Amino acid sequence: MYPTPAQQAALLDQCGHARYVWNLALEQWSMWTRDRGPTPGFAEQCRQLTEARATFAWLRAGSQTVQQQALRDFAHGIKNYYGGTHRRPTWRKAGLNEGFRIVGSQASRIVKLSRRWAEVNVPKVGWVRFRLSRAVADAKSYRVTRDRAGRWHLAFAAVPPPIPAPGTGEVVGVDRGVAVSAALSTGELLTCPRLSDTEQVRLKQLQRRLARCRRGSNRHRRVKAAIAELHARAGDRRKDWVEKTSTDLARRFDLIRVEDLHIAQMTKRPKPKPGPDRAGTYLPNRRRAKAGLNRGILANGWGLLVQRLKHKAAGRIEKIHPAYTSQTCSVCGHCAPENRESQAVFRCVACGHRANADVNAAVNIAAGRAVSARRGTPVRVSPKREPQHATSA
Prior knowledge:
Elements: H1 5-30, H2 42-55, H3 57-60, H4 64-83, E1 98-103, E2 110-112, E3 117-122, E4 126-131, E5 141-146, E6 152-156, E7 171-176, E8 182-184, E9 189-190, H5 197-212, H6 218-252, E10 255-259, H7 263-266, E11 273-274, E12 282-283, H8 287-299, H9 302-312, E13 317-320, E14 345-347, E15 354-356, H10 357-367, E16 369-371, E17 378-380, E18 384-385
Parallel strand pairs: 7-10, 10-13
Antiparallel strand pairs: 1-5, 2-3, 3-4, 5-6, 7-8, 8-9, 11-12, 13-18, 14-15, 16-17
Helix pairs in contact: 1-4, 2-4, 5-6, 6-9
């Protein structure tokens, strides 16, 4: 979106109102105890919102549609949380969670200006121009968001149909790594694009400059915006790579097998190790090395790739237990740590088979192989099959 300066201020006000209403509803829900009555539901919160708008002029200046929709989204979030399909609703912070949603007749008020440009009527803001990245679907709602780099985006809610299977019966295994983002059992090595060397040098310079800035100053805000722009550029490239890779895999293979990785657990920071001799002292816990590994995992888009594969190839994703898939020979099945010569080279000490280590692991994943914790002979495990239903994109 390309709003004018006046429209940007109005959009930020709408984001602030939606965030305030969401956090207030979350506070009411979080303060519930067994000795109190039930927390207010959506209808009661709407009545409270009407009273608040009549009392506070700053809240009344905003759109009631936006504020009521924030309450409705919170009610859906609570329902999904208790249903076990979503995480617990969290607080929305200024500068991090800037956005609101429009549902109903307002969502259909779109005027196409040319092949690339259109306008949308945002309540209490007016007609805002946006660039068409694709054809606008018949959506019943849209969401306006602002990222850390200060860019405004408009997303229409539409669930595209999943990509049909090619019908060839081919199976592929995907091994995700840090050095190689995704290795396929066909021998292909895919790498997620990152910032160039020049951009990384620029990022270090900006980070050093930010450390010398006084907090809250104009220079501090400008440097933070420049750093956010570089990170946003890397995020855009990662998302583009994930979309293209997931679409290509969904079109080429009938069955896609991936490792069942718990990325949230893998990217946790290490726990501190208290010193045994004196209280208040701590032993080295390799915190910096773990932080570098976490950045590498997140920069390769492991979770986003599998998430988009579930959307596009619904019902055709199998999760394989990752136990010793990188140490097992894909030819003879011998499992030993000595098979892995280095990060990139695999050489079986039993049969002499040599291959790329990531490709060898991907072949084991494609075959559905895993090894028991005792590192015995390879056994076939029961894969976790994704449910046969389409997921919202």
